[in-house]
Amino acid sequence: MADLERGLIQFFQACLPPLVPGEYRIDVEHTIREARPEPFRTGLDFSVAGPRFTLNPADVYSVYPPANQAGAYGNTLPHIVLVRRTLPWERTLDGSAPDEKNPCPWLALLVLSPSDFPNSELPKMDIRKVQELLRPGHGIKGPDLNTTELKEYESVDDLCNTIDLPTSLFTSIVPAKADLPYLAHVRQVQTDKKETASLHTEGCFSVVLANRFPETAKGRDGGRNLAVLVSLEGLHTYLHGEAGIIREKTVRLAVLAHWSFSSQGQTTFKTLISQLDTGLLQLPPPMNTVAAEGSDDVKHAYSLGYTALTHRIRNGETTVSWYRGPLVPLFYRKLDVYRSLPCPDAALRYHYDTGLLDVSYAAAWQLGRLLALQSPLFAQTMYRTRHQERQRVYAKMEEAAQRQQYDVPGNEMSEYLAQEMGKLTNELK
User: Fold this and answer.
1) Max Cα separation, the chain?
2) Which parts of the chain have pLDDT scores under 50?
3) What pLDDT was estimated at residue 220?
4) What is d(CA 398, CA 159) in angstroms, rounded to the nearest whole number?
5) Which one, 81, 85, 208, 319, has least CB within 10 Å?
6) How far apart are CA 307 and CA 292, in angstroms?
7) How far is the CA of 379 from the CAs of 374, 375, 385, in angstroms?
8) pTM of the entire structure?
9) For residues 231 and 92, what is the distance between their CA atoms, to the nearest angstrom?
10) CA distances, 319 to each of 308, 324, 358 (Å)
11) What DSSP string describes 288-316?
12) What's the Cα-to-Cα distance from 74 to each of 216, 224, 426, rounded to whole Å?
């Protein structure tokens, strides 16, 4: 995939793998007519492995709504983002070769709520052997997969997460086969500014969406939903619009990933912030300052989120200075104009009431510089700019030296060179 410009996002219907999981053989034949009339033949057998009953947790990049969180998610389709862009299409529903014209994923994201069950309790995941998944026993329907067709790296004794759903519930919430292609896609994003995605240089992820909204509770409690990523391989004849009829009362599915969250209609990010206990952003003043002179100023500083820390200044002396992080227990008006500072010491502030320095902005300046230098693009651009400036100054110095050698008047050049050297010195600081 081509590089994506910053600020853009690109969607793809699907991304088929070059080779789907299975057994392969490469045969090579080489004939040298002059030396050996008989051709030389050789072959290589190999297997392409892929997830089937379990999924490596590292393959899951993120989920939404976030796991174990509460919020107003009633109008949000839950989805899961997978690291490998080909994962939803690495297998097929019936085990055949993938259809390049209309690719269909073998994964589905189901959303379960307490009202879906008679006892109003969400089902639990059970760890079972693959044998118990494929041959679950009387009254339970499992995937139509033959245990004799398992690959060499698969075994009936392997463990996997499973979930049992009532047949009526499964048939009512499982996506139709015709809808599955619309519930999975690939998206390419720019990852330069994303800390968690910095390792994924291409920025290509596969996304699987649910086909129903979560259940929302009006009260503060409740509204808990369970999202499960299941495999539909071997169940293609029992999806919506297909002829197969499940006669068993229960359907057993392989669960590749799952998480729970709560959808509460009145809970939004704004309400959470407005109800935030700002006392958590304050530290209690030291006990020895209660009766000390100027303790009121110290208490006031601690109420603003400050804390007193040991500070070693440039001349090597040690003092005590105020510091606080970006999260403060009060509202600060955003500045309209920000000054350019040459060094972190220029951001030091002096508190006349307490006679102490405030190193908060200086620490933020230093942190910003380190984050900027951490970016390869920024560091390369800055180095290239400084290198070009040095070359330009050196060229002017060479020109001035030649003028002096050949008795060419260079008073104006000397003044210009002095100015340029001053600019370069300030930039190199």
Assistant:
1) 106
2) 198, 219-221
3) 47
4) 75
5) 319
6) 17
7) 7, 6, 10
8) 0.64
9) 10
10) 10, 16, 12
11) GGSSSTTHHHHHHHHHTT-EEEEEE-TTS
12) 6, 11, 56
